[in-house]
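Practice problem: predict the structure.
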Amino acid sequence: MSGPHLVAKAPRLIAMTAMTILVLGPLYWVTASSFKGRQEIIRNDPTLVPEDPTLENFRQLFTATDYPTYLTNSFVVALLTALLSTLVSVAAGYGLYRLRIPGNNKVAVLILVAYMIPGTLLLVPLYQVLAAVELIDTRNALVLVNVAFTAPFCTWLLRGFILAVPEDLDEAAAVDGAGPIRIMMQVVLPLLMPGIATAAMYAFVFSWTEFVFASQIVVSDGLKTLPIGLSAIMGQYTVNWGLLMAGTVCTMIPVILPFLFIGRYFVRGLIAGASR
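Answer:
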C-alpha cells in the first residue's frame, strides 16, 4: 500500500481499531476474569491473561447457585417469545405490505408509532391488566409482554424483505389457481426465511435481556429469568466476582453464537426496513 493511500485510510483504521477495542475489550475482560481465581480478580495489579486458569467459577455456578433454573426459565420464555412474535409479525407484515387492504398504510404507521412508546410508561397499566387476569408471577405473563413489545418492530423489520419479493410471483401463482394463503405459504414465505430468522433472533435477544418487566411481574425464585437471577447471585453485601463473570459468559453465549450466523441478515433487514 502506497504512502498517500495509507494516510487517507488512517482515520478509518484508527476509528475501526478504537471501536473494536471498545466493543470487544469488555467481552474479553469478562471472559478472562471468569477463568481467574477470586484473589486474582480483585487484586490491585490486574492481569490481562489468567495466571492460573480454573473452571471452579463455572462449577460453583452450576452446582451452588440457582443459575440452571434461571437459564431454563430464560430459554422457555425467549423461545416462546421468538415463536409467537414471528408468527404474529409474519401474518401482520404479509397483510399490511403485500395484500391490498384498505387502510393498511395507516395501520402500518400506527404499529411503528406503538413501537416508539417507552415501555416503562406502560409498566403500571400492564401490571394491572395482568393482575386482573391472574397472570402475575407466571411465565405466560412474561411471554405476552415480550411479544407485545417485539411484534411491532419485527413487523417493520420484515417490511423490507416482503417488498423485495417480486409481486410477479404472486400473479403467476394466482394464474395457476393458487389462493392468497397458498401464495403466502408456498411462494412468499420460503423467500422470507432470512427475514424470519432475523425477526426471531431479535425477539429472542429482547426476551433474553429484558429486565424491567421481569423484575416486576415475576416474584417466585423458581420463575426468575437470567437478568434477575444474575442480580440475585451478586448478593446484597458482597459480590463473588468469579461467579458473576462465569454467569455473564454463560448468559452471553446463547445470544452471540446465533448472531454470528445471521448477523448479516439482521443488518440487511434494518437497512431495508429503513430505506424502503
